[in-house]
């Protein structure tokens, strides 16, 4: 029984480690701020899910400590609410600070950022969204 | 198994903090600090299991709470220049 729990939780922890180290490498190698944001936020949430499932199995069946398992479950719930919220806050703050998404060749995806249009003309957000045009002849967006 | 987990988390932490040092904009640094906080949550829990004391999970839960508040507070400070201002509007983008 203990061997089975060790194998299953080891597999979960291994998957989580692959997620986490992959996300960290993506954070180093990605060319643009928004791609780095994508690499970091998605893998953080996924990695913590798998690692915490593995640790919950260990706490329940090896350490025989159900309270630690409940607290690890609370960590999962909390991270699942806060990590996407924090990523959204970072992305929104960067967009309002005129950091424009880039293509592979360094060209910007939009003519003008949403934030500059919004601040220049004092439009409502829906009107400003309609004024954002994609760069002509670029279908890789 | 726990030792491998702790080593993997430490490697990821070094990579993430490299981005915090390199990062061209303040938002890259903020993103990597947020990511490093998530990794420290895992590191504290895994270290508790490594030393045979799963009670360390309390500290990692607390660290998860503080990490979120830090990110939101620093971002609000850089966006509005003031933590106490009521500049945020409901129809903001």
Gist?
The complex is a heterodimer of chains A (141) and B (93). Helices cover 73% and strands 0% of the residues of chain A. With 141 residues, chain A is mostly helical.
Report on the architecture of this protein.
The complex is a heterodimer of chains A (141) and B (93). Chain A has 141 residues and is mainly α. Chain A folds into 2 domains: 2-97; 99-134, no CATH class. Chain A has helices spanning 2-29, 33-61, 66-96, 114-121, 125-131. In chain A, helix 1 runs antiparallel to helix 2, helix 2 (33-61) runs antiparallel to helix 3 and helix 4 packs across helix 5. Chain A starts with a helix and ends in a 10-residue tail after the last helix. By secondary structure, chain B is mainly alpha-helical. Chain B has one domain (2-80). Chain B is flat. At the A-B interface, helix 1, helix 2, helix 3 and helix 4 of A face helix 1, helix 2 and helix 3 of B.
Oligomer type: heterodimer
Helix content of chain A: over 70%
Secondary structure tally, helices of chain A? 5
- By DSSP (H or I, 4+ residues per run), the number of helices of chain B equals 3
Shape of chain A: elongated
Class computed from helices, strands and strand pairing of chain A: mainly alpha
The biggest sheet of chain B, with number of strands, parallel, antiparallel or mixed sense and barrel status, is:
none
Distance between the termini of chain A: 51 Å
Overall mean pLDDT of chain B stands at 85
The counted number of beta strands of chain B is 0
Which parts of chain B are unreliable, with pLDDT below 50 for 5 consecutive residues or more? none
Gyration radius of chain B, rounded: 16 Å
Runs of chain A in which pLDDT lies below 50 for 5 or more consecutive residues are 134-141
Which short descriptors sum up this protein?
heterodimer, A: 141 residues, mainly alpha, 73% helix, B: 93 residues, 3 helices, 0% strand, flat
């Amino acid at each position: 029984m203990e061997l089975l729990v060790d194998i299953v939780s080891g597999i979960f922890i291994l998957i989580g480690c692959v997620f986490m180290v992959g996300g960290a490498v993506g954070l180093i190698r990605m060319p643009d701020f928004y791609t780095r944001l994508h690499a970091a936020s998605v893998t953080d949430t996924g990695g913590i899910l798998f690692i915490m499932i593995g640790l919950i199995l260990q706490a329940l069946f090896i350490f025989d400590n159900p309270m630690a398992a409940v607290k690890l479950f609370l960590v999962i719930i909390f991270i699942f609410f806060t990590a996407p919220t924090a990523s959204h806050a970072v992305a929104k703050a960067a967009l309002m600070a005129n950091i424009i998404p880039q293509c592979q060749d360094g060209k910007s995806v939009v003519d003008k950022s949403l934030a500059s249009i919004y601040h220049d003309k004092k439009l409502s957000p829906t009107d400003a969204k309609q004024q954002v045009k994609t760069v002509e002849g670029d279908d890789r967006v | 198994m726990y030792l491998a987990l702790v080593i993997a988390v430490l490697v990821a932490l070094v990579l993430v903090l490299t981005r915090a040092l390199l990062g061209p904009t303040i938002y890259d640094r903020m993103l990597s600090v947020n990511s490093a906080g998530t990794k420290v949550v895992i590191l504290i829990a895994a270290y508790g299991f490594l030393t045979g004391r799963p009670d360390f999970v309390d500290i990692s839960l607390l660290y998860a709470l503080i990490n979120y508040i830090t990110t939101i507070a620093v971002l609000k400070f850089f966006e509005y220049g003031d933590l106490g201002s009521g500049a945020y509007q409901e129809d903001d983008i």
